[in-house]
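Hi Q.,

Before the meeting this afternoon, I wanted you to have the zinc ion prediction in hand. No need to reply - just skim if you have a minute. The sequence and ligand are here:
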Amino acid sequence: MNIVDVLNELWTTILDVTAIFVMPDWTFLISLLPIIVLVGLVGPYLTGLVLGTGAYLVTKPRVKVAFEEGPRVAEIGPGGEAVFPVGLPHCRRDSLVYPSGTLRCERCHDELAVICPMCSLGRSALIDTCSNCGLVLKVVPRAVAVRSTAGPKPGGAAVA
Ligand SMILES: [Zn+2]
Ligand SMILES: [Zn+2]
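Predicted structure with the ligand bound:
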């Protein structure tokens, strides 16, 4: 056996090995081509969709919390006086409107006032029943705090 035979044998072996690996690979890849194209086209769309949804979920709650927490400045009416929304606690001194359930002003620590939604009569936010029309302003989240801090209410003792 001379060196040429060895080289020929080696070359044949290399071709056989390459054939085994290359031929199935190509047919396999070609059969996968529609899937690759599909992933290439749909992938970026799905990634954008997921990123967009994630960004939406991350930014949305922050906006909601910022909207619901803390007082906001009351709107100024045409006469230059602060206009307070009906049924929400507010401080006349600082012209601040508080979320439902707030009892005292964060700035001056004074009792907040509330305007009755039914008869438009102003009263203290500590009293949940209108003395004029009897409408009860339900404050669910801080109902316990209202009960403990507020004094004896007319009608409250009769119910209990
Ligand atoms: Zn105040
Ligand atoms: Zn009323």
